[in-house]
Amino acid sequence: MEIEQQILEYFNHFHTHPEVSWKEVETTKKLAEIMTGLNVNFHTFPDVTGLIAEIGEGEQVVAVRADIDALWQEVDGTLQANHSCGHDANMAMVLGALLHLEDETLTKRVRFIFQPAEELGNGSLSMIERGAIDDVTHLYGVHLRPIEELPFGQVTPALHHGSGIFLRGKITGVDAHGARPHQGKNAIDVIAAIHQFVKSIYFSPFESYSAKLTHIQTGGDSLNIIPGTALFSMDVRSQSNELMKELQQKIADGLHSIAKLHDVGISFEWTDYTPAAEVSETAMQIADGAIRKTLGDAATALPIHTTGADDFHFYTIKKPELNATMIGIGADLSPGLHHPNMSFNPKALAIGAQVLANTIRAT
Question: Where do the Peptidase M20 dimerisation domain residues begin and end (predicted)?
Answer without folding.
Answer: 170-256
